[in-house]
Structures are given as C-alpha cells and as structure tokens.
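Handout for the seminar on molecular recognition.
Each group receives one record of this type.
Step one: identify the two inputs.
Step two: read the structure output and locate the region that could contact 3,4-dihydroxyphenylalanine.
Step three: write two sentences on what you found, then compare them with the reference statements printed after the record.
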Amino acid sequence: MREELQAIEKEALEKIENADQFQQLQQVQVEYLGKKGSITKVLRGMGKLAPEERPVIGELANNVRKTIQAALKEKKEALEKAELEKKLAEETIDVTLPGRPVHFGGNHILTSIIEEIEDLFIGLGYEVREGPEVETDYYNFEALNLPKGHPAREMQDSFYITNEILLRTHTSPVQARTMEAYGGDKPVRMICPGKVYRRDTDDATHSHQFTQIEGLYVDKNVRMSDLKGTLKLFAEKLFGKDRDIRLRPSFFPFTEPSVEMDISCAVCGGDGCNVCKHTGWIEILGAGMVHPRVLEMAGYDPNVYSGFAFGMGPDRIAMLKYGIDDIRRFYTNDIRFLKQFHEA
Ligand code: DAH
C-alpha cells in the first residue's frame, strides 16, 4: 500500500507539472483527491491491514493528499499569473504612437462677420436685439410706412403664411418692435442681426434666405452727420482704414431722406475693375433718417426725437471681403468651403 500511495503521488505530481490549463488541474483534483479518487480507494482497503500499520498508512495517505493539494494550489497560481501577464502584454498601449486627429469646429463665416459688426456697435453703446422670423404684416410693412397696397411692397412680396403673417422680408420690423419696447421716452441704440426671406429666384447673388443687420439710433437731435460718421467708422473697421464712403440719394418708405452707401472698391482702390463694375464704388447698405411717421407709430414724438437707421447684408459684406463668388456657398454646408474661414 505504501508503494501504491507513493506511485499515486508521483503520477499526480507529474500530471500537475505538465498541466497548462485549469481544466487539467480540475481533473487531477477529481481523479486523485475526489470521493471516488485513487487515495480514497486505497484508504478503503485499510481494513485488510494489521492494526499497527493502519495509522502509519493513514498518515502517509494524508501527507500524499496534502502534497498533491499544495502542488495543485501552486500550479493554479502560476497559471493565473501567466494568464494575467499574457493579457497585460496584449493590452499594452504604445504611448509613442501618433494620436487620432481631433477635428475642431468653428464659426460659420457669416457668424464671424456678424460678431465683428456686433463688436463695433456694442463699443458704440448699441444693444444687440432679436426679432421673430415669422412676422406680422403690421411690423414687416405697416409700421414701416408701407401700408397695404403700397407699390414698394411688391419688391419684397414674399412667403405668406396667412394674409397677416409672413416670413420677415427684412430686419427692419425690429426697429418698430424695439421703439415700442422702449416706450417712447428713452433714446434707442440697437442693432439686430438675423435671417430674412424673399421670393427671389436663387442665383449667384440671390438667395431666398439670407442675413441682414438692422441698425437704429433714436435720440434728441440725431442728425444726418451722425449717420455718416457712424457708417464711415463701420466701413473702416470692416474694410480697412483707406476705404472711402459715399452716400447716394435713394428711396425707402421708412426713411426720409434715404441713402445708399457705397465704399471705394478694395480690389482696384477706386480705379475701376470687374468687381466694382468699373465704377470704383461698391454698394454696401441702405440707410436714412427715420421717417417721422415711423417714429410716431412706434410711440416716439417726431417733434422731440429724431433718428437714423441702416440695413446691411452680411452675406454681401463677406462676399466682398473674401472674394466669394456665389451667395449659395453660405447655405450649402460644404465643409471644404466653410473650413477656410476657421481660425487655426
Ligand atoms: N430694409 C431694407 C431692405 O431690406 C434695408 C434698409 C434700408 C434698412 C434703409 C434700413 C434703412 O434701416 O434705413 O432692403
């Protein structure tokens, strides 16, 4: 029996030694130490032994069991360690590899132009306001001295939702809305950037949706020279110090007198080229002294208050400033176009 136990120990230890999977260790456990395992079998035959031999063999059997158990434990730990090391090796990160590039977004070119203009006017004490894009006929036309049937409406006849509600055709309605909000007894200085909509056929210089910035200054003793000084400052800020401006007489129902402002062509410096159609000048915006009826309808007494207003198109300004040939580029979201204007 002694030999039998020694043989069991030798065989089991060899199997453990050679095992390279947990499952094999499990098998050894069952085969040698289990209820029906080899050691148990040997112990069952103990009855045949002489009584003085029994404790000796019993102790031997116990030792064999302990040795096998210890070997199993050791091997199990070794396998666990190897497995962990293998996993760590597989998951090693090479910190010297170049990273994946992160793509940064940036402002849309029109947003940048609008913010540049906002900065200038905020510096002059103006407030930036917003108005609804779905507007009433009253604010879009009537409050601007364009009563129903006025011929000047036709130029802007547009996207009507009902007879009385339409997509605003310009940002000018915000003039009346702001004056009303101010209550008729306080100076008003505001600009309003936003989207406007017209029934235009889209081409390189027309889009059914575009942007405008409205400006309004109402106070006591506001004069045409104030308008001219403000517009000159604006032109220099956006197009450079040596740009000249000129005001041409024009007509808008909500201003009297009305003007259109040109800047000297930045491409040819005023000598004449394709961009300025050989005139040396480029039209930039409409402006004028606020019509007394517009002041009156919005609650300002035209005998006490006067003001100027202007309206410009950031699309057009961006096109001139950056030599962009087609207004539709602003609205078709081609990332290759838009990215050119992102800061690095
Ligand atoms: N609302 C005019 C347009 O869309 C632009 C304009 C002209 C606005 C003269 C003004 C202004 O405030 O004084 O054509």
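Reference statements: The first strand starts at residue 127 and ends at 128. The two ends are 86 Å apart (CA to CA).
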